[in-house]
Write a structure and sequence with these properties.
142 residues; 5-stranded mixed barrel; extended; mainly beta
Length: 142
């Protein structure tokens, strides 16, 4: 049997996110960066986000954030725009809910951004999507 020489197994590695509750400096956008809200997760380290300038972009989660910072639909992100691909961007930073509220209070985010309220579905024509509606039929006829 091999001897354990480490300081613990994978459970120790899972519990390393202890610094989430610390206050961290608020990052504002610079040239070549934009605020975005996640509309849907695509998998394979990619997501679709609606940027502050109104353009929907395909974003790539960098390896620094991948499996360390969990991103869900509705989260506010800071993305780096690509000069050579207008429809794609790279995720630089994920804002916590309180940081997103601060950005909105500072006037950095417009009113269409609702921090952490899920993806914005523009196709709300049918509010009962995913539900099947049956007509009331007489059970005796069946």
């Amino acid at each position: 049997m091999p001897k354990n020489k480490g300081k613990g197994g994978k459970n120790r590695k899972r519990g390393k996110n202890e610094a989430d509750d610390e206050k961290r400096e608020l990052l504002f956008k610079e040239d070549g960066q934009e605020y975005a809200q996640v509309t849907r997760m695509l998998g394979n380290g990619r997501l679709e986000a609606k940027c502050h300038d109104g353009v929907a972009r395909l974003c790539h989660i960098s390896g620094k954030l991948h499996k360390k910072v969990w991103i869900a639909a509705g989260d506010i992100l800071l993305v780096g725009l690509r000069d050579y691909q207008a429809g794609k961007a790279d995720v630089i930073h994920k804002y916590m809910p309180d940081e997103a509220r601060l950005l909105k209070a500072y006037g950095e985010l417009n009113d269409s951004f609702r921090p952490n309220e899920g993806g914005d579905n523009d196709d709300d024509d049918n509010p009962a999507d995913g539900y099947i509606e049956f007509e009331d039929a007489d059970v005796d006829k069946i």
